[in-house]
Write a structure and sequence with these properties.
This protein has 126 residues and is of the alpha/beta class. The protein has helices at 13-24, 83-93; strands at 7-10, 27-33, 39-46, 49-55, 75-80, 96-103, 109-114, 120-125. The longest helix is centred in the first third of the chain and has 12 residues, at 13-24.
Length: 126
Amino acid sequence: MGATVPYITVHDARAALDFYAAAFGATVGERYDDEDGRVGHAELDIHGAPVYVSDEYPDYGAYAPRTLGGRSSAAVVVSVPDVDATYADALRAGATQDRPPADMPGGGRGGWLVDPYGHRWLVRSS
């Protein structure tokens, strides 16, 4: 069975890993740091869903939203047990509000935010 895993590039992966832990309860599995101090690859687990993170690697075409002028054109959707609590945790950790949590058409609850690295996230009920 196949899977789709978001792979996001950030301008400070070490700080980003701390942010994702505080904001979403992410835990880091495999992680590879380069000799120059950049995080070459880190695998996060966010409530059972994988997300990969790396620092910028222009030689491989991996650029952070900040380098590209702002926000990413893609978004990451994360399903969590408590949308309002997770959304509040993310704001306290440094995210900015896009659309606050609300009941969604078709059921469930969700809210949009932007992390400090320019990536948009939909925090939705699992």
